């Protein structure tokens, strides 16, 4: 269910993410809480296979990626009817450490009605079903990062 | 026979020298499994990828048994890694 005044924004973009503008676009007069997740390029990884990253090169199957982002937003609304606005934006192209690459934001009237969980669900689902890939370029070479999720029929 | 065009992304695209798509001839009524087998045979650079590749028909995930509809938009790519 999506009320007509409940905004849903989803896009693949090569532009810099404007976190303030995105938050503004999903804030209603009735909104009192927002959970914003943003991921950025990590220049130094110490967990697991420790390595340095010079930059990441993102690529998307844009029309399908935007359709799947819409699907993720629909799934969020089906699970948390309290959510007012949803923004899901993935930046692509060559992105350097400290640069925000993705944003998932959800708004609601109050903080205790699922906004945190909804944003968490959104980023987890994006990483499962939205067709975007990144190539990691380090000091000693480059490598495509591949996920490990195999979508099921209907996803 | 029908000639189908398959969009490629990420690793798959690099394996074929950056081509955004490939074309493959398939018998009418072919399935995704047939398509993968044909690609593995005709394009050795992609043979390994065919084991783990994800396939879509008209921007929806599709599986080995699915029959390829006429004029469908087909794509192949590795498991996604956005975020």
Explain what this protein looks like in three dimensions.
The complex is a heterodimer of chains A (155) and B (83). In chain A, a hairpin with a 2-residue loop joins strand 9 and strand 10 (141-145). In chain A, the strands form three sheets. Chain A has a four-stranded mixed sheet with strand order 1-6-8-2, sandwiched between helices. In chain A, strands 7-5-9-10 form a four-stranded antiparallel sheet, with no helix packed on it. Chain A has helices at residues 19-25, 62-79, 115-129, and strands spanning 8-13, 33-40, 44-45, 51-52, 55-60, 86-91, 93-95, 100-108, 132-138, 141-145. Chain A has a single domain, classed as Alpha-Beta Complex (Aldehyde Oxidoreductase, domain 3), CATH 3.90.1170. The longest helix of chain A has 18 residues, at 62-79. Chain A is of the alpha+beta class. The two termini of chain A are 19 Å apart. Chain A has three helices and ten strands; from the N terminus they run E-H-E-E-E-E-H-E-E-E-H-E-E. The model of chain A has no long low-confidence stretch (mean pLDDT 96). Chain A is globular and about 50 Å long. Chain B is of the alpha+beta class and 83 residues long. Chain B has one domain (2-77): Ubiquitin-like (UB roll) (Roll), CATH 3.10.20. Chain B has helices spanning 11-15, 32-42, and strands at residues 2-8, 21-26, 54-57, 60-62, 74-77. A five-stranded mixed sheet of chain B has the order 2-1-5-3-4. The longest helix of chain B is centred in the middle third of the chain and has 11 residues, at 32-42. The model of chain B has no long low-confidence stretch (mean pLDDT 96). The chains are: A alpha+beta (155), B alpha+beta (83). Chains A and B meet through strand 5, helix 2, helix 3 and strand 9 of A and loops of B.
